[in-house]
Amino acid sequence: MTNVTIGSILVGTRNSDGLRQWYEQALGATVNADGFLEFDQISVLIDGREDVQASVAEPGRHIINFHVDDIHRAAAQLRAMRVAVLGDPELRDDIWFATFRDLDGNLLQLLQLTAHYWSTRGRSTELSRARVSARLPASDLARAERFYENVLGLRPAERRPGGLRYQSLSGSFSLFASTGRASGDHTQLTFTVDDIELATEELRRHGVALLDIDQPAVRTEQGVARVSGNYPSTHSTGELAAWFNDSEGNLLSISCHTGTAAVHQHT
After folding, report:
1. Dist. CA 257–CA 266, nearest whole Å
2. Full-prediction pTM beyond 0.70?
3. Which domains, from first to last, does the chain contain?
4. How confident is the model over 176-211, as pLDDT tens digits?
């Protein structure tokens, strides 16, 4: 088994509505269309189950850690909501910890990593600890939203004036209203999929034309290129790739790992 990632966490309960609302209120989580609580890089599903008790018997068996920027402020907010905080924030090994209980008695932790923690691990700058996401310009934000929903099947997780944020399984990107024009001469965003044939068929079905690339290192055949070499973390020896433009002229790509981690290959 290779290239395994955690997609979500399931919390079983006899009181799914109540516990879900508790997480929304206590931690500011939002519920997506599938009923998952969305956090920064992972989602939590509060699932009603008959094989669990009303309160947990071993609250320390599984603990979810929530990383925060200001643990003292976060703990104070929980206390103000009468959440059971089991002790004030405590500094241990350059990490601040605070433990609290949810509505079912599950133990949860707040964590804040200090600057010294990062400096001893060779990552002392603020940018090295930053969360990264992509930004794509849109000359017509409403048109772009229609394209991403109707063609790519994506709906914004959040909105703000002049901007839309999209959340995927392992990252996020945003569309922002811009008076400039997208260059479209380099890949701006890549979607890594399991089945590139299925993905390209879906695009064609919606009238999206795959781009023909004819360069010494990359050459497409029927819209798909076979690229040799890949990053070690992918556990693959190469990738299949296809490129297309969104409604605003941004250049997007689809990628599928090949080699040891390959599940589906283009034929």
Report:
1. 11
2. no
3. 8-129 (3.10.180.10), 134-258 (3.10.180.10)
4. 999 888 888 899 999 999 999 999 999 999 999 999
